[in-house]
């Protein structure tokens, strides 16, 4: 399967490096019809009203199959536009260079995009994947005036490896399987994040009880919404110690002189590492300015161990006898903290206002239970993110190995077409 | 005609008292299984008495009338032999369980239509050698239930429906989920009947009809609009229900309402009961349902479907929502219309996913084919077995011209009144929502008309709260829905993982 030195005579030197003898190197112009897009006049309203046909621009080239459609053109504009059929590959060639998308139906596209309507001798998905390995080559073709541009003439000349059709299909099939697994993992991450939101809303309304019990929990209406009757509503300063006075901001010059391993924390997370620390223990950091404070946004985060904090995050710690750090953290994420901030252009959460943030306060064991339920969901999200990252790395590695024929799949039987 | 002498408060006190009599030997969720058949018997008995009295006047004497009826049972709705009438049952003090059970079986023998309906409860049943309900308790229960007359002129026919709803609401909370009973709150059923707006001659179908609530409300809506002249107009009703005890309730209900209805027992998804001579699904003018939300079916149910129902795609295993919708859709005539109540996730799950998603893709087909007419978001904590809100989806095969390529989204999430343990939609809200739908109106903060393109832009998410925001409301999914969504994503991912593993194994990269 891997390149075997004894079989080296089966390989030949090409302008794309060492490739199997039965592979060729071809120009894009050899494998399909190349079309540069255009934009029907924006002045003619009827071209853009009651749109029928998706009109693709480089920002729409996000996913494998193009699925973001920001604009449509009407039937009246179809003669004025350039369109390609389903199975065509679109590549951005002005501005952002080398983004690739697969068209699952007939589309129109603007002048920043060159499209390839593939011939029968090339498998469209193979073309799609192989173009991803040619991003450097395409970028190097760009002429720079104000924005980088790859002309159609140059685009036609882009070289790609060209294995026999059956192997093209197998290569595409392997890569699609990895991409599919990655995309499904992204969906799992999204669903888990949605579950976290729903769970927060549920736990902060009924407490950590089963669905059946939830109906029977006596609730009361408070300034922060419905909560179980037995909970209190308190102000943040009643349940935390505030350690803002110990914070020390360091500018980048200072930090460059003290590179190290201790996290240096700002409004929204770790921004650098330094060789000293001013805090040791578990704390909640809540953005003071430059934060994202809306409902479900990460207005706060938890830090453990030895670290440094600048003056953009409040640093607080639960008073152990009546509250739990993680519980407070999740409330600060759940609640809309923006309503406490002031300022118009750059919003700020002043310490005095922060002290008055209202917090629901269940008994300690309940706080712990809520925190551990939500932490379990967070751990799942993290594990899924790691899996996604691993699949991305696997994809890159396979893409490189398959397109350079370091791994061959031509003789594998179970790998079928898509 | 029928007067409602039994006001809600009296009815509730009455049922409460009856429930108190069997408290202890019977679990609260099962109160209704004993109380409702007895109420039905009382009603049959009182109606029979009314008919007997009427005929006595006609024939001159009570004895003649009795003789005539005895020889021709067609003279009355249901024939009750003397020993099975309430007055006789109420006299018994010993062997009551046995007597009562015999009485209902006798009635079923004389009236084949009531077989498997009135005779399903064994009042004489024992558990571990002990009577479940002792004769003393039965006597007390019969005494309480005998207190009100339930004849034609005494109460409105909805007595059984109202009693059912009360017992369920009061005693069956929390048990509904496992029991599979998904009673649709009366006001939601009324709203749906107004949306469906039945016309003379329509055939109406409910594939998971439960105790028949939605069909009955459709019948009542029709009567309200077209009057009670049965010779001129009529509706035909069809319902199927999987649970025997609930099926029996539906039958009792339609008998009391004198509806022209066929109720079938069985599993609609695997064995739909209403078929044409050729064996394909019968088609109806109107289809209405509140199917079990997020029901689990094996994929084989969809893959091996002999009725060609799932043409828009197979739903995921852990939520049959779009399976039910497609069953209903396949049961519609070419110009038919359907409305169903379902969890909110059915209109939002999968939208925004990167890859394929079965529910989104099926929903997309319905939108692209311009079949979805309206989606209505209901308030939270309205349904008996869940605090989750729920939506009504209206699908119309012949949308009026001015509604083409448009969908009306109604956010009724705030139009409720608080109640314990359940919230409810007050009459004026039902009126208002129905009026918005029927007049196809946009109203600030309540409803919005979106184009097909707008739906496409939102990746076919049809959640009304997404388009019609209300103060302080967020788009957080109900917890149950969020879990279903996660399970679906995991199921899809599992397939992708397995496929990848096979490939990597063959490449020698996975050991």
TrEMBL record, chain A:
<dbReference type="GO" id="GO:0009307">
    <property type="term" value="P:DNA restriction-modification system"/>
</dbReference>
<feature type="domain" description="Type I restriction modification DNA specificity">
    <location>
        <begin position="228"/>
        <end position="392"/>
    </location>
</feature>
<dbReference type="InterPro" id="IPR000055">
    <property type="entry name" value="Restrct_endonuc_typeI_TRD"/>
</dbReference>
<keyword id="KW-0680">Restriction system</keyword>
<dbReference type="Pfam" id="PF01420">
    <property type="entry name" value="Methylase_S"/>
</dbReference>
<dbReference type="InterPro" id="IPR052021">
    <property type="entry name" value="Type-I_RS_S_subunit"/>
</dbReference>
<protein>
    <recommendedName>
        <fullName>Type I restriction modification DNA specificity domain-containing protein</fullName>
    </recommendedName>
</protein>
<feature type="coiled-coil region">
    <location>
        <begin position="374"/>
        <end position="401"/>
    </location>
</feature>
<dbReference type="GO" id="GO:0003677">
    <property type="term" value="F:DNA binding"/>
</dbReference>
<dbReference type="InterPro" id="IPR044946">
    <property type="entry name" value="Restrct_endonuc_typeI_TRD_sf"/>
</dbReference>
<keyword id="KW-0238">DNA-binding</keyword>
<comment type="similarity">
    <text>Belongs to the type-I restriction system S methylase family.</text>
</comment>
<keyword id="KW-0175">Coiled coil</keyword>
<feature type="domain" description="Type I restriction modification DNA specificity">
    <location>
        <begin position="20"/>
        <end position="181"/>
    </location>
</feature>
Automatic annotation (TrEMBL), chain B:
<feature type="domain" description="N6 adenine-specific DNA methyltransferase N-terminal">
    <location>
        <begin position="11"/>
        <end position="143"/>
    </location>
</feature>
<feature type="domain" description="DNA methylase adenine-specific">
    <location>
        <begin position="156"/>
        <end position="475"/>
    </location>
</feature>
<dbReference type="GO" id="GO:0009007">
    <property type="term" value="F:site-specific DNA-methyltransferase (adenine-specific) activity"/>
</dbReference>
<keyword id="KW-0489">Methyltransferase</keyword>
<dbReference type="InterPro" id="IPR029063">
    <property type="entry name" value="SAM-dependent_MTases_sf"/>
</dbReference>
<keyword id="KW-0949">S-adenosyl-L-methionine</keyword>
<protein>
    <recommendedName>
        <fullName>site-specific DNA-methyltransferase (adenine-specific)</fullName>
        <ecNumber>2.1.1.72</ecNumber>
    </recommendedName>
</protein>
<dbReference type="GO" id="GO:0032259">
    <property type="term" value="P:methylation"/>
</dbReference>
<keyword id="KW-0175">Coiled coil</keyword>
<dbReference type="InterPro" id="IPR038333">
    <property type="entry name" value="T1MK-like_N_sf"/>
</dbReference>
<dbReference type="GO" id="GO:0003677">
    <property type="term" value="F:DNA binding"/>
</dbReference>
<keyword id="KW-0680">Restriction system</keyword>
<dbReference type="InterPro" id="IPR022749">
    <property type="entry name" value="D12N6_MeTrfase_N"/>
</dbReference>
<dbReference type="GO" id="GO:0009307">
    <property type="term" value="P:DNA restriction-modification system"/>
</dbReference>
<dbReference type="InterPro" id="IPR051537">
    <property type="entry name" value="DNA_Adenine_Mtase"/>
</dbReference>
<comment type="similarity">
    <text>Belongs to the N(4)/N(6)-methyltransferase family.</text>
</comment>
<dbReference type="InterPro" id="IPR003356">
    <property type="entry name" value="DNA_methylase_A-5"/>
</dbReference>
<dbReference type="Pfam" id="PF02384">
    <property type="entry name" value="N6_Mtase"/>
</dbReference>
<dbReference type="Pfam" id="PF12161">
    <property type="entry name" value="HsdM_N"/>
</dbReference>
<keyword id="KW-0808">Transferase</keyword>
<feature type="coiled-coil region">
    <location>
        <begin position="479"/>
        <end position="506"/>
    </location>
</feature>
<dbReference type="GO" id="GO:0008170">
    <property type="term" value="F:N-methyltransferase activity"/>
</dbReference>
